[in-house]
Amino acid sequence: MKARGYVSHRAVCALMALLMVCVPLVSHAAQRAKSNWVTSWAASPQPRWDGDFALPVRVPNQLWNQTVRQVLRLSLGGQRLRLRISNRYGTKPLHIGAVSAALVANGGAIQPDTARQALFDGQAYLTVPVGAAVISDPIELSVDDSADVAVSLYFPEPTAPQTFHWDGLQTAYIGSGNQVNNIDMQVSDTSETRMFVSSVIVQRSEPAKAVVAFGDSITDGNASSINRNHRWPDFLAKRLLKANIAVVNAGISGARLLDTGLGENALARFEQDVIAHPGVDSVIVMMGINDIGWPGSALAPHKEPTSAEQLITAYRQLITLAHLHDLRIIGATLTPFEGALHDSPMRGYFSDDKEQVRQQVNHWIRHSGEFDGVLDFDALTRDPMHPARFLPHFDSGDHLHPGDSGYQAMAEAVNLQLFY
Q1: Tens digits of per-residue pLDDT, 360-404?
Q2: What Å distances lie between residue 238 and 126, 171, 404, CA to CA?
Q3: C-alpha dist (Å) from residue 342 to 218, 395, 399
Q4: Residue of 125, 121, 113, 137 lying closest to 178 (CA atoms)
Q5: Where is the signal peptide (predicted)?
Q6: Do 243 and 371 reside in the same domain of the chain?
Q7: Three-class SS of 268-313
């Protein structure tokens, strides 16, 4: 018989083993809870298309012994940051010789003494496998809210930019040799596309969350002013700073709910372009006008018309995916498009039948109650005297995209209580 209070050697060992297993797990969980990493900027990757498509690629065929410096406007700032580099559509491993992040001075110049080398598992040289993305080690660079950050990448080997973001609306600077730390780059070429850099994640001292704007060219900011950050998600980001909420732009010009073309269809990219962002809490969906407008135009001359029922089915799938991941999902009505692109090679984008589909879709978005909230961008931007057309003051001139004032009005019309 064992004396009262006696604990066997085996029991002591079991208890110690249990503590040794449990204590690190608790510690890691606490560390994750206090990490406060949130995505502050993004440009959704898309595959480069062939030259026989209706739109120019606008990206170099090859980068070789060259540096590309890209300027990114963050929403929330932080004490440290990480970079995500994507090779999602590459057909071979992506080799990058050096990467840096710095604060922007003006144009392609960076502020002295702010360049920080980005390391990946402690290494400066980076290889990204085919179809993958990699995230840098934390970079010790403190950035303010709404800061402009320059990310510079050096390509020592011949590299085709197969993964890019077409409608960057920001000048990227290209120069010979390794110039990632140069204050003033020697620039030989420029581009208005994004290449390989798909997001910036910041660490804050307090918890933060993100809203993802998931859409097409109207979310991407097409027809807004170059280098001005006048997309509607940019204006919304300024309004949400005080609430400690970042706005992540996951728009792709030409994006569709149902079909893959300039980018993957909405269901195919929702996980990577929405759910995968650290800190995401809500998503705004504004997509579908290209599904309606492309069939019968130069963009998809032989495609059958898209019905409202097909689009509603896709919306319901996005709602299901969002709710399964505990995300709030907000639906935005489709804006007017009569006369869209009529004076361009894309004529045929609008028809009366297509307008009926848009009206049916908007009625469902407004009245079905299936989204967690609604942004009625159609009611805001339409001409009351001609509801199928943009209000002239908001029209960029192509009758499909808002101009700067239209994008600002869209952001100012958003009820911020949807995200609190």
Answers
A1: 999 999 999 999 999 999 999 999 999 999 999 999 999 999 999
A2: 34, 22, 15
A3: 18, 14, 9
A4: 125
A5: 1-29
A6: yes
A7: HHHHHHHHCCCCEEEEEEECCHHHHHCECCCCECCCCCCCHHHHHH
Domain assignment of residue 412, yes or no? yes
Contacts of 266 (CB under 8 A, 6+ apart): 214, 255, 256, 257, 258, 285, 287, 314, 318
Is 26 part of any domain?
no
DSSP symbol at 402: B
Report which of 286, 292, 269, 283 is spatially closest to residue 354, judged by C-alpha positions.
Answer: 292
Instruction: Express each pLDDT in 323-340 by its tens digit.
Output: 999 999 999 999 999 999
Instruction: Please tell me whether residues 219 and 191 are part of one structural domain.
Output: no
| 1 assigned to some structural domain | no
Distance CA 155, CA 68 (A): 8
Q: Is residue 15 part of a domain?
A: no
For residue 252, give the amino acid letter. I
Q: Which structural domain, as residue segments, surrounds residue 367?
A: 208-419
Identify the CATH number of the domain in which residue 297 sits: 3.40.50.1110
231 shares its domain with 165: no
Q: Looking at 198, 227, 255, which one is the last position of a domain?
A: 198
